[in-house]
Design goal:
Layout lengths: L3 H5 L2 E2 L10 E2 L6 H9 L4 H7 L5 H15 L6
Antiparallel strand pairs: 1-2
Length: 76
């Protein structure tokens, strides 16, 4: 298993790819899309049917990214 720093290198944001939304490196698959799919109870296998290039580490990177970002928001 990759360490958290290595996992986070799998997430990139490029102004010319998906309007700078965070994506899994080298793809147009956004972190948001993966998280929404998981929240709708899609399994990794179901996601991989639509995105055969998806690796378990990519999903882990999305979850870690969300965890890191969530800590930066304040709720009033």
């Amino acid at each position: 298993m990759l360490n958290p720093t290595d996992l986070l290198t799998r997430i990139t944001a490029n102004p010319q790819v998906m309007v700078s939304k965070p994506t899994i490196r080298g793809t147009r698959l956004t972190v948001e899309h993966v998280l929404k799919a998981l929240s709708n109870r899609l399994s990794f296998e179901e996601l991989q049917e639509d995105y055969p290039f998806l690796e378990p580490e990519g999903v882990s990177a999305c979850l870690l990214y969300a965890d890191k970002i969530e800590g930066h928001f304040c709720v009033f």
